[in-house]
What we know:
Elements: H1 4-10, H2 15-26, H3 35-39, H4 42-57, H5 62-65, H6 71-74, E1 90-99, E2 104-112, H7 118-131, E3 135-146, E4 149-151, H8 155-167, H9 169-177, E5 184-193, E6 196-204, H10 211-228, E7 234-237, H11 250-255, E8 258-267, H12 269-276, H13 280-298, H14 307-318, H15 325-328, E9 332-338, E10 341-351, H16 363-371, H17 383-408, H18 412-420, H19 423-427
Parallel strand pairs: 1-3
Antiparallel strand pairs: 1-2, 3-6, 3-8, 4-6, 4-7, 5-6, 8-10, 9-10
Amino acid sequence: MPNTSEQDRVEHYSQDRLEEVVKGIIEGKIKLHEADKVLGNANAGALARRLALEKMLGISLSSIGSTILDFEELVGRNIENPIGAVQIPVGIVGPLRVEGEYAKGVFYVPMATTEGALVASVNRGAKAITLSGGARTRIVYDGMTRAPLFWTPSVEEAVRLVQWVREHFDEVRREAESTTRHGKLRDIQVFFTGNLVWLRFVYDTGDAMGMNMATIATDKAAEYIVSNFPGRARLVAVSGNMCTDKKPALINQLLGRGKTVIAEALIKRDVALKVLKAPPEEIDYVNKAKNLLGTARAGSPSLNAHFANIVAAIFLATGQDAAQIVESSMGYTWTEVRDGDLYISVTLPSLEVGTVGGGTRLPTQREALSIMGVAGGGDPPGTNAKKFAEIVAATVLAGELNLLAALAANELARAHRLLGRGEAKKQQ
């Protein structure tokens, strides 16, 4: 049976009509994507698809069907062929003090995860940071990229194409910006391979993560270039993989993509000993032996302990593009012992986040953003996304700090036994 909210949205459809569509799907007379159109409503289409699957597969999908989502709002924007939704537990980390340029004060951070011990781990790191005066954060670069690939017949023509684009940058920028109210073309970075040319367009995208914005704007600019360049050139692909999107890439680590954010803290010695149960010297040694030497020995380009754990949990809770966890979780953890205290920093060169657009419009995800005071557009535009990025970096710092301390104190396996396997509940 559909849940109450779903029933309210489809109650005006007769049972006979619904069953007719379900039967048509099962018999192959109605395609899955046609159910919305046949019934005239995306919520009814979702119900019909789910009921058809239940009958075809002999299973129950009642939990997937239990959702507050209104597919009339989401189909064509966020999903196709919906049948319901999945739920992931959301935990809260905090209080976490952040002293950034945009994020200032104490924050509570939602994390969606099924990994036991993760929220508790990050929370302990947040406590140590807050007791030590907070995390200092700065965004040192901000620019979303899209890199179209152009073919020319020769390297000579490739150079001419680049020279022409540079000479006509204002016209190219005007074409790109004609597609968006908030996107601003800041730069075009050039890369050659033989007769092929990549033009890496760099945009300021306001409070949006901006990938779709950058793609649409770049497509318009590329069309203008090909149509007006007085030579031979054609567009091979609007995305030539030099962007680089949804893949680990050194270009993003070196030049940045999205927001390059640094978070740092000076953990007082007594806090390290009392809260983290490990002295600064041992935490520092674990970081350098594990995150630096161990990662280099393994050949990974990303020198950290578990950025992805924190980034993924926040992304899922707040409606970010989950596939961009790949590049957003790249980065570096650095530690030093200073007069007996522990200095620790994390650098995320390619954090791709937004507070408008994409999955941020979903009701639960928007609520999660509102917990941090970053839901929707900022005033002025762009400030909410920057504030959010600083909070994410500070939370990553908390996660790194605690894991390094847990390893130094040999507590990692015990924590997972207690929280990951539920032994703590058994002991109560």
